[in-house]
């Protein structure tokens, strides 16, 4: 193994660790759900969305789509299992209308994923063309998931408060995007570089906002609902994971 390959592996392992920590960020939410035996005002949207995002990145990392991407598969495989576990727990403690919505969205995601797999393996030959299609789809999903961090940042500027933009989460997102962007540069991979480069930039802006508005934050002011915080923070955490 060359020094460049060794360095790439080390960076990828570090990326796996950081991403794993981010995937665990919803655990406190689900501990609350489990103890209350109710989903309360929490919403399943971010977890269901991240299921498809992880599944697409696992497919992207397959040797017949994009070779030498085992570390992309490992972290997103773990992420997929965790997100499905979150969805299952949410399903368990939801009423029927919410369960019906979860089933519908998961079926839509399954059909979409199956179509992408079918088109990729049937009509595209060679890893270059397959990587392009699946990679572009992954980039689009990641960019769409940046809507939540943008909403959080807009709220910070509007309220001059960083109460609902946790520093540790912003730091982790910045580090995550930076590490995976570096990983993508070792064997130039634009489909990994673009979303994670944007993720690093998003994390940097969040850190700048944190410094700028920390002093004006009223920590005892409760201006957001529980579900809003949960929804924003999970999408914030998952937006720039590979």
From TrEMBL:
Family classification: Belongs to the SWEET sugar transporter family.
Membrane-spanning residues: 12-34, 70-92, 104-126, 132-152, 164-186, 192-213
Cell compartments where the protein resides: Endomembrane system
UniProt keyword annotations, A-Z: Membrane, Repeat, Sugar transport, Transmembrane, Transmembrane helix, Transport
Pfam families named among the record's database cross-references: MtN3_slv
Protein task: Mediates both low-affinity uptake and efflux of sugar across the membrane.
Topology of the protein relative to the lipid bilayer: Multi-pass membrane protein
Organism: Penstemon davidsonii
InterPro entries listed in its UniProt record: SWEET, SWEET_rpt
Name of protein: Bidirectional sugar transporter SWEET
Keyword Transport set for record: yes
Keyword check for Transmembrane: yes
Positions in coiled-coil regions: none
């Amino acid at each position: 193994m060359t020094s460049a390959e060794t360095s790439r592996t080390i960076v990828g392992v570090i990326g796996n660790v950081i991403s794993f920590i981010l995937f665990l960020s919803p655990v406190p939410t689900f501990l609350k759900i489990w103890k209350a035996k109710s989903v309360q005002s929490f919403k399943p949207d971010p977890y269901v969305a991240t299921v498809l995002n992880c599944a697409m990145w696992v497919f992207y990392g397959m040797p017949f789509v994009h070779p030498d991407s085992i570390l992309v598969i490992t972290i997103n495989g773990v992420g997929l299992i965790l997100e499905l576990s979150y969805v299952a727990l949410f399903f368990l403690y939801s009423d029927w209308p919410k369960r019906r919505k979860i089933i519908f969205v998961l079926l839509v995601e399954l059909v979409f994923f199956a179509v992408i797999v079918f088109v990729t393996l049937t009509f595209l030959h060679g890893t270059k063309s397959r990587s392009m299609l699946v990679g572009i789809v992954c980039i689009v999903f990641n960019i769409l998931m940046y809507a939540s961090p943008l909403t959080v940042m807009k709220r910070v500027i509007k309220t001059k408060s960083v109460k609902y933009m946790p520093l540790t989460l912003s730091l982790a997102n910045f580090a995550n995007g930076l590490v995976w962007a570096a990983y993508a540069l070792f064997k130039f991979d634009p489909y990994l570089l673009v979303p994670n480069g944007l993720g690093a930039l998003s994390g940097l802006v969040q850190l700048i906002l944190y410094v700028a508005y920390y002093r004006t934050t009223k920590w005892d002011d409760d201006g957001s609902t529980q579900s809003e915080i949960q929804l924003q923070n999970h999408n914030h955490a998952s937006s720039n994971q590979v």
